[in-house]
Amino acid sequence: MKVLLTTTYGKILLELDAENAPNTTDNFVQYVKDGHYDGTVFHRVISNFMIQGGGFTPDMEQKPTRAPIENEAANGLSNEVGTIAMARTSDPHSASAQFFINVADNHFLDKARSPDGWGYAVFGKVVEGMETVNRIKGVATGNKGFHQDVPREDVIIESAEVIEE
């Protein structure tokens, strides 16, 4: 299954791994089909770590979500450069709509190495558009309200669409 993110910085084509992360993939795809990601921003960018999006409008208002999903980080997939994983709070089963794309090998986020014993569920990878991801990771960031590492200029997800099921 593939999802295309069209951003103000270019396109990112994701290949999702429904075999190893079925619930996480289904959850993400439902948000895509619902139009949830359209008009949201990459609201947290850390150039040697990851770019995170899927939850906030450009004015940093959090979008409503469905109920959180069960953590699938024990699926054998690793938080490596170019993979997409679910963001969550300190509660391991709190992932809903927010996701991040790893821009470094972040193996400490894998279940086997995670300090909390749970990890962050990888559910796919970038197959085209890493140049877009790399452009986004290089943006200038600062604080916006209570939020840190926010791009100074909005990086908007204009649309997200399933292009191959």
Name some characteristics of this structure.
mainly beta, 2 helices, eight-stranded antiparallel barrel, globular, two-stranded antiparallel ribbon, 165 residues
Structural summary, described in words:
By secondary structure, this protein is mostly beta strands. It has helices spanning 22-33, 130-137, and strands at 2-7, 10-16, 40-46, 50-53, 83-86, 99-102, 122-128, 141-144, 147-151, 156-164. It is built from two helices and ten strands; from the N terminus they run ββαβββββαβββ. Strands 1-2-7-5-6-4-3-10 form an eight-stranded antiparallel barrel. A two-stranded antiparallel sheet has the order 8-9. A hairpin with a 2-residue loop joins β8 and β9. The longest helix has 12 residues, at 22-33.
Spans of 5+ residues with little confidence (pLDDT < 50)?
none
For the biggest β-sheet, the strand order reads 1-2-7-5-6-4-3-10
Q: Please tell me the overall pLDDT.
A: 97
Secondary structural class = mainly beta
Shape: globular
State the distance separating the first and last CA atoms.
5 Å
Strand content: 25-35%
Topology pattern, helix = H, strand = E: EEHEEEEEHEEE
Major sheet characteristics: 8 strands, antiparallel, barrel
The portion of residues assigned to helices is 10-25%
Give the tally of β-strands. 10
Q: Treating each run of at least 4 consecutive H or I residues as one helix, how many helices?
A: 2
Using the CA coordinates, give the radius of gyration.
14 Å
